Amino acid sequence: MAAQHTRPAHLPSKEELLAFIGQQPAKVGTREIARAYGLKNADRALLKGLLREMADAGMIEGGHKKIGHPGTLPDVVVADITGRDSDGELLATPAEWDEETRGPPPKIRVYVPRKAKPREIPGVGDHALLKVEAEREAHDGVAYRGRVLKVLDRAKHRTIGVYRALPSGGGRLVPVDKKSHGKELNIPQGAGMDSQDGDLVAAEVARSGRYGLPSARVVEKLGSLKSERAVSLIAIAAHGIPSVFSRDVLAEADAAKPATVAHREDWRDVPLVTIDPADAKDHDDAVFACANDSAGNRGGFIIDVAIADVAHYVLPGSKLDREALIRGNSCYFPDRVVPMLPERISNDLCSLKAGEDRAAIAVRMVIGADGKKHSHRFHRILMRSAAKLHYAQAQAAIDGNPDDTTGPLLEPILKPLYAAYAALKIARAERDPLDLELPERKILLKADGMVDRVIVPERLDAHRLIEEFMILANVAAAETLERMRTPLIYRTHDEPSPEKIEGLREFLQSMEMGLPKGGTLHTAQFNRILERVKESANRDLVNQVVLRSQSQAEYSADNYGHFGLNLRKYAHFTSPIRRYADLIVHRALIRALSLGDGALPGSVDTAQLIEVAAQISATERRAMAAERETVDRLIAYHLADRIGATFEGHIAGVTRAGLFVKLDGTGADGFIPARTIGDEYFRYNEAHHSLSGEHSGMTYRLGDRATVKLVEAAPVAGALRFEILSDGRIEKGQRAGRVRTRRDSARKPKPAPGRRHRR
Please, are residues 466 and 289 in contact by the beta-carbon 8 Å criterion? Predict the structure, then answer.
């Protein structure tokens, strides 16, 4: 008879765990639970299994590192001030909240410290950083109280829109913000700043009367929509991205002097090289590798990664530092970069230009023939880049086509770099990080700034080489700071939530593939699925669904690992010119290793870094949204004169409301409303990511090929609307009936009673 496995007496029950978690002011991790109940390391696996069962049952939520009751908020949250309660107290909701899986966002009652200055007091519509804790008893549906730590963004009193001139004088403003639902504003005669029809403008909204359209006056002309420049400005203005440096910040940057070799190691004889995109304007990392002659490391390598020493120029508390924190990161658009730091810093003093002395923080790493790191050490140096290379140039040299620049570098520099990368590939394969195939589109502009074409750049070994070197350096930074017990900001990526895993499992079952239940999740499980479909027609579909099951990476002062990279310790160290998180890590290394000026102040602790991590995670998401929307607008403008044209693509999203289709070539995304598909009711199957005709069984599924006609383009909103021309598939068990499509009838018959609403 098989042995019965029972729960150890000292392991808490599910009821005890629920009570303990409920008593905590914020989410807790397995470490805190184990400490509270005196559990040993051997018991933690049992605890994790118990917590996973509770998560699967919906009793708790969160990844295995941070756990709370469903709807629990973290200690610090970026929130939107939404209104006031009956007593006049401010109310807020989390700025980032997935309502589909977590329900309505919790309400937070906002408290302002008594000694707060006027600029530290938020108002309705503002964006603020709050320190939150659960209310003992919820009143009026308010579950949390939040203390204002910082006001991040004030409510926008300006509206960005397109000016439409009226024959009688004056005009109308059509807002670009989708939340405005197309509500126009009246621009009285004389209040338009001589704007021309089609100009993109910023306007201040005046108080509106009881009747008629609200009025506004133009305060800034941003350009014509015929200019690509205006398209990127829409996203910059709509998301409130700071794009102009103040005079004080610029003056501080201009006053900076180049670093010297004083108090630094002289590495100017080390032939470090930069390898970047061909159009890169700043170069913040340089690399070098050579064989290791140590007797105990036959076949191993020494790898040097040097990173621009931004901390030398941007000191804590300076005007440059405060501005960089507000921006959080650089934003990249097809026509421009909105930098985190002024060009004097980013493109000049900190850019590792070939043949010029530059300050850097370098890490020298010793790896074995198997690619595993044996040791590492950080150095503060003065370096001189031996060459500026781009990816295709370096790859061509290795492939046997060197040019005048790479020819002399091939034997002494490039071949050792690629040999070291070959070793790192062995370690990467053993680590088995998540291996999704996600091609990225790039917009190429013509000389006049308009869209020329959209390409998907080829992924080269040169790209992968730099990525692996940077990952290795980032791990070394996190390991050093943990060992020295210095607070830092980690780059974290939680494992997928139980809800998303269950959805993925149901989807895979529909394709006769499985995902094991229970136990610890590993990236290898996902990679085996991706490998199975690598050569099949379902490759793109499965890659998309696996991607959607993943959590979003973020910055955190609490380390819960990086699931996607399959790393326990990881911090961003390699791009301080464009990411504030990396600057914090540089300062922490200077403090921990006593490397000189620019150190993280001793007064900065984990509690303060929690606030910074929440803020820069929000600015990162803001940049991603702005960059994505700009690409969508540009492509919509590019296709605006092709109404009625037919395109090939694939279904990239399925919702109750309809289908999202991504076009071949441009990668343009457009929407097909469910009401325009055929002449029958289409049911949404969330597990299968599909819409199916109720009578015919005709099914449109995520990843399916589709032929569509472009019926509407709204460049300002970045929106395209398609009409489906191709038939769907007939699923097993469904009858093969004919679906009446828009091709079959110029006029669609009225829907039957009770079928007016399709979602």
Answer: no
